[in-house]
Predict the structure.
Amino acid sequence: KPIKFLGRWIRAEGKDKAVIETTKVDLNTYLQRLDDSCLSGIQKCWGYQYMVLAKMKWPLAIYDIPLTTVTRWEQHTNSFLRKWLGVGHTLSNICLFSQTS
């Protein structure tokens, strides 16, 4: 049975695979809930920025999640953002996340 120490779940096997899988499922659930809602695309992007990212910061900060895993999650998330914004899949990430117009 895992124990919680300083906000981190410690398991007997000493690996974070279960937490990584749980975090992945949570991310997909949050994105699917936003996608299934009757909000507009911009409102869904706002929900992603202020609700989903807020919930994902803690596991990403405290657990050792490989960069390749986070990159896959980012690609999956970007497809939702592109769909909500109504832009094509060829739009670069620079345009998607740029601070200036």
Q: What stands out?
A: Residues 31 and 80 are 8 Å apart (CA to CA). Residues 41-62 form the longest helix (22 residues).
